[in-house]
Design a protein that fits this description.
This protein is mainly beta. It has four domains: 229 residues; 214 residues, no CATH class; 112 residues, TM1070-like (Hypothetical Protein Tm1070, Chain: A, Sandwich), CATH 2.60.290.11; 33 residues, no CATH class. It is built from five helices and 39 strands. The strands form eight sheets. Strands 1, 2, 4, 5, 6, 7, 8, 9, 10, 12, 13 and 14 form a twelve-stranded mixed beta sheet that branches. The longest helix has 24 residues. The radius of gyration is 39 Å and the shape is elongated.
Length: 702
């Protein structure tokens, strides 16, 4: 019989080996990383620098780097399916193009963000050293896994990690690992993070790799058609060596492209909520819109900017408490504490064009140099909030153009409240508040109203250069939970002087878009954000001539008869009327001939005369019909004299009838004619149209 007592030690050894084998198996779980796209944020289709969602790797398993041993380094390259347009912060003498893109390990919180910079690294490469556990907290509580160059302990205290280096050694020492790495632009659609230490976490947790501040040219990809899935921006990660950072599903959607803005010019009314397209006629001789005139207080229309998704309008992080940006008083209190807008990944969506921003404490310097708190040197920091602009073209000489300095959104189109009104300069209760700034691509500089301007002195006159003027407004406060629609009134002033052709005859157009517009579609040390100009021109107003239209109801040059025509410019008078002169266009209508002939210029105080047979000498056999003379001056009067040839046996004359000024829509440069007697119009009768008055034709007079 077997002596089982002798077998006990053997069984114990076998049991120990089996247990050891199980432990070793658990400790050798394959190192693997799973990729997700963070947040697939909406991207504006007009945006050349659309901030996409972060790319986040979550890595588990593997064998942690042993105590004091160098952590394996990986080159991590990311690509977009469009141009990668994150701002370039500097271009070094070595040819490195430092991007604002950052790679951050283990979701480092504010105060624990330690960048690899020129102080402790070479060309953005900083070695890391293991603690044997692959976690951010090593067993000796006094030894930090990540540090800022001053571990805080004596050299003796960190001796187990020194492995031959001394405190302050360039390249780092154990206990001084870095967790923030700056990307280099290496292709038009790609950035690369060089030499990132990736320590497998083993079974003690996970290693998180976050890539942030990636911007892309959304405009280049376009907008999907109606009822189609939105066009995606896709980010792909490619590590080298791949075995040091094995990634599942290396491509992720990080944004969906949607149209961001709808612009329109609309007719004005008291509530600013008109949906009628704007096409306003201004008569050249109407002096009610001079600086002192009553008509100058009447807006001609409104410009409307409407966001197409709730975060298409965005405020910016600002460095002071002035204005109505974000209530935190300083950049420090906004960006480097636990309630930070951007440097803490757990806060959420901030509705700004800034990305991950931290330029204080240990993050004051990156590989690209000092982060000064200005957009051009600070990773993730946008130059401004959302800006919109209006570009007016073909503004007539003699016209002063005004726009409202502020536009607000309270949740109701055109409405204001006690806490949100551009008439009382109260904006504390606005969901969105846009304010006029001096340029489209400069620092925010509010533009005040022009003295004695329309809209209760809450509008400003635009500077016109070669018939063009531009207005730019910046969103100082925006609500991410509403679809804002903001109006800006448009006003004009001019002194009527038809005799000097002022204001000149022209149709003014307007283009509305995001601002600033740019042709820089690649990564550059340029303003962020910037946009493509996708606007189209809309008519806004037309200066039409003041006409005198004369009807000669019967003219003939047939059967031995002829008609003499006389037109006088009677603006020279004893009433101090401004003299006017101009030509007339004679429009002929008959079965034999239909066409037009011009007159020479008819100076004020003179009469022009001619016969029909002379003017229409090319019409074989003559014509019989009527003629309408359109004279480009006021106070024209006409006379016709019908006689037989030589005026020997027959002669009769009549005064030409004056047709009321057309007031309808402009066609071929002239307003259309409305066949409605003036006496029937409600405008001429406070009680409304006259009883029994029918729209039977024109109210003609001599």
């Amino acid at each position: 019989m077997v002596d089982f007592r002798r077998m006990i030690p053997v069984l114990a050894v076998i049991a120990f080996l089996l247990g050891s084998s199980g432990t070793a198996s658990a400790q050798n779980t394959p190192f693997q990383c799973f990729l997700n796209g963070g947040v697939s944020t909406p991207a504006r289709s007009e945006d050349l620098t659309a901030l996409v969602g972060d790319l986040v790797l979550n890595c588990t398993g593997g064998i942690p780097t042993a105590f004091g041993q160098p952590i394996p380094q990986v080159n991590i390259q990311v690509f977009l399916n469009t141009s990668l347009t994150s701002r370039l912060l500097t271009t070094s003498s070595s040819g490195i193009q430092w991007s604002e893109t950052l790679l951050i390990l283990d979701e480092a919180a504010p105060g624990k963000q330690f960048p690899c910079n020129s102080i402790n690294g070479v060309n953005g490469v900083c070695p890391g050293f293991g603690n044997g556990f692959g976690t951010g907290n090593s067993p000796p509580a006094t030894i930090a896994y990540y540090g800022n160059g001053t571990p805080g302990q004596t050299q003796a205290a960190v001796a187990p990690y020194t492995i031959g280096c001394t405190a302050g050694t360039v390249g780092g020492c154990p206990g001084n690992n870095k967790n923030v790495f700056q990307g280099q632009q290496t292709a038009s659609n790609s950035v690369t993070f060089i030499g990132v230490p990736i320590d497998p976490p083993g079974t003690n947790g996970s290693r998180v790799v976050r890539i942030t501040n990636v911007r892309g040219n959304a405009n280049a990809l376009g907008v999907a058609g109606a009822n189609a899935t939105p066009t995606p921006i896709v980010e792909t990660i490619s590590p080298t060596p791949a075995s040091f950072l094995p990634v599942s599903n290396p491509s992720q959607t990080v944004a969906f492209i949607q149209r961001g803005l709808i612009f329109g010019a609309f007719a004005s009314n008291a509530a600013l909520n008109s949906t009628t397209a704007l096409s306003f006629n201004l008569q050249q001789c109407d002096n009610s819109r001079n600086a002192a005139g009553q008509g100058t207080t009447l807006r001609i229309g409104v410009l409307r900017y409407t966001e197409q998704f709730a975060t298409a309008f965005r405020k910016r992080i600002f460095t002071s408490a002035t204005g109505n940006y974000i209530t935190a008083p300083t950049l420090a209190s906004q960006q480097n504490n636990l309630t930070s807008q951007t440097s803490n990944f757990t806060i959420g969506t901030y509705n700004t064009d800034s990305g991950f921003v931290s330029n204080l404490g240990d993050m004051a310097t990156l590989a690209s140099g000092a982060q000064t708190g200005t957009p051009g040197t600070t990773a993730g920091f946008a130059d401004w909030g959302t800006r919109v602009k209006a570009v007016f073209n073909n503004i007539p000489n003699g016209v002063t153009l005004f726009v409202d300095t502020d536009g607000v959104w309270t949740g109701t189109l055109g409405a204001t409240t006690l806490g949100c009104s551009n008439l009382t300069n109260t904006y504390t209760g606005c969901l969105d508040h846009f304010s006029l700034t001096s340029t489209q691509d400069g620092a925010y500089s509010p533009v005040g109203s022009t003295g004695t301007s329309p809209n209760g002195n809450h509008a400003t006159a635009l500077t016109v250069t070669n018939g063009t003027a531009t207005a730019v407004w910046e969103d100082l406060d925006s609500d991410p939970n509403t679809f804002a629609s903001v109006n800006f009134g448009v006003w004009v002033q001019y002194t009527a002087s038809p005799g000097t052709n002022s204001p000149s005859l022209a149709t003014t157009t307007v283009n509305g878009s995001y601002a600033p517009t740019s042709t820089v579609t690649i990564a550059a040390n340029a303003n962020v954000p910037r946009f493509a100009d996708t606007s189209t021109a809309s008519n806004i107003f037309t200066v039409v001539p003041c006409l005198t239209t004369l009807l000669f109801p019967f003219v003939t040059s047939q059967a031995g008869f002829d008609t003499g025509i006389a037109i006088s410019s009677t603006s020279s008078d004893p009433f101090n009327t401004t003299p006017q002169s101009g030509t007339c266009t004679l429009n002929w209508y008959s079965a034999a001939f239909t066409g037009a002939t011009p007159t020479p210029n008819i100076p004020a105080g003179t009469t022009w005369a001619a016969t029909v047979s002379t003017m229409l000498n090319n019409v074989t056999g003559g014509m019989t019909g009527y003629m309408i003379a359109v004279c480009r001056f006021q106070y024209a009067h006409g006379f016709a004299d019908v006689t037989d040839l030589g005026a020997r046996n027959f002669g009769t004359g009549y005064l030409a009838l004056v047709i009321p000024d057309p007031t309808g829509l402009v066609t071929n440069g002239l307003p259309t004619r409305l066949a409605t007697p003036a006496t029937c119009g409600a405008a001429n009768n406070a009680a409304g149209p006259l009883a029994g008055c029918l729209s039977t034709g024109e109210n003609l007079s001599q």
